[in-house]
Amino acid sequence: MSETTARALALLNLLQTHRHWPGPELAARLRVTERTVRRDVERLRDLGYRVESVPGIAGGYRLEAGRALPPLLLTDDEAVAMAIGLRVAAMQRLVAEPETTLTALAKLETVLPSRLRRRVSALAEAVHPPGASAGAAVPSGLLGELALACRDHERVRFAYTDGAGVLTRRHVEPHVLAPVNRRWYLLCWDLDRGDWRTFRVDRLASLENLRAPFTPHELTPEMVEELVLVASKWVRTPGEGDVVMDLPIERMRAWFGRWAEGAEPVGPDRTRWPVGGATFRETMFGMSWVPEGVEYTTDLAEPERSLLRETLERMLRALDRAPETLADTPSSGRRRPS
């Protein structure tokens, strides 16, 4: 491959990130002059790529969607199938990093005509891989922009509405996009709070890429798994209530670690903690993690409260009764294991 061809492909790869590129920044990235960038842009235009140029100090280049696909040797149906496949691959973690498929999807959708983008969006909402439940809709363009910000280590701002309906503005350094149960989560370093935060992407709005690079914080795969798992579990569910335990919040946080998400102090010596799940059994499991010897109360509502009480009463009766031996049970005709 000639140097000119390799450079043109590198330029195309940068333009396909769906970003506005100033001419000097492209030249610096490609290690060429701005005049060479202009010549390479013309070569791409000759090949059928619609590269828009804006003159002036704030000018630059970006790749536009055309009326037809550029020369990728793909039919319309093949391009749509590829876009859907990339989204499913990311959702099902068919590759090690979901951002890999999302950035590829962002590049493809950048050059898709609007009619094909509409087909992709419609099919994406209808296609549910086996074993996957329906989740909140997230525009693929938003996922692509976040994936690129994670890959390029660029700070972003956005509006976020939490589960209680409270709207806040966030200034973050995005690190990881992760799918869990048909929902997307963005793991970030929150600059205003000086700590890790995990956001549901379907609750984001008004995303703004600040084009400000940052140095990534240390983040192990184990940390990613734990932070995203905590965020995906910390939602109001039918079997949820608040536990108020006789434990200062500092000791509570030291005991529960990341799972202390949502805890708040109740005076100097007590802590309120939301605990629960889809059923009362998951709520019971959460309560079992209250440290040994620590008393607590709960406002778990009916009917889960009665179901939990009945289950625990049966457990206590079972513990109080003498265990039955094999000789005490009626013969069932089954052979004893050899």
Q: Would you summarize the structure shown here?
A:
The chain has 338 residues and is α+β, with helices and mostly antiparallel strands. 40% of the residues lie in helices and 20% in strands.
CATH-defined architecture of one domain: Roll
Mean pLDDT: 78
User: Percentage of helical residues?
Assistant: 40-55%
Describe the strand arrangement of the main beta sheet, using strand numbers. 6-5-4-3-7
Please provide the ordered H/E string of secondary-structure elements.
HHHEEHHHHEEEEEHEHEEHEH
Strand content: 15-25%
Quick one: CATH class of one domain? Mainly Beta
Counting DSSP E segments of at least 2 residues, the number of strands comes to 11
Low-confidence stretches: 126-134
Overall body shape: elongated
Distance between the termini: 70 Å
Main sheet: strands, sense, barrel: 5 strands, antiparallel
Rg over C-alpha atoms, rounded to the nearest angstrom: 27 Å
Structural class: alpha+beta
Q: What is the number of helices? A: 11
